[in-house]
Amino acid sequence: TFHFGEEAIGGFAAGIVGTLLGFPLDLVKTRMQTQLSSSATKQLSAVSLLSHILRTEGISAVYKGVGPPLLSLSIVNTLSFTSYSYFR
């Protein structure tokens, strides 16, 4: 049976959790890519780089700019979960 409310809440929550977990990883990936172009600094591992960002810039730097992807991915996941459940 199709339960719209449950599917919508599940999709919305999945969008939030996925974005909040993935956003710091995307930041680290981007910083590592930009490190490659500047040969003056030594290459840090992903964990070292994340630790460095947290120490020097704080937790807010890890989530700077998270608003638009958080909103859009929550909406996309809500629509995906509900439409999949409806049409399967």
Provide a descriptive summary of the structure in words:
It is elongated, with a radius of gyration of 18 Å. The relative contact order is 0.21. 81% of the residues lie in helices and 0% in strands. The mean pLDDT is 91. It contains four helices and no strands.
Keywords for this structure?
81% helix; 88 residues; elongated; mainly alpha; 0% strand
For the sheet with most strands, the description reads: none
Q: What is the subunit arrangement here?
A: single chain
Q: What is the helix fraction of residues, given as a range?
A: over 70%
- Stretches where pLDDT is under 50 for at least 5 consecutive residues are none
Order of helices and strands: HHHH
Helix/sheet category: mainly alpha
In whole angstroms, the N-to-C terminal distance is 10 Å
Overall 3D shape: elongated
Mean pLDDT rating: 91
Q: Count the strands?
A: 0
The total of helices stands at 4
Strand content: under 5%
Backbone CA Rg = 18 Å
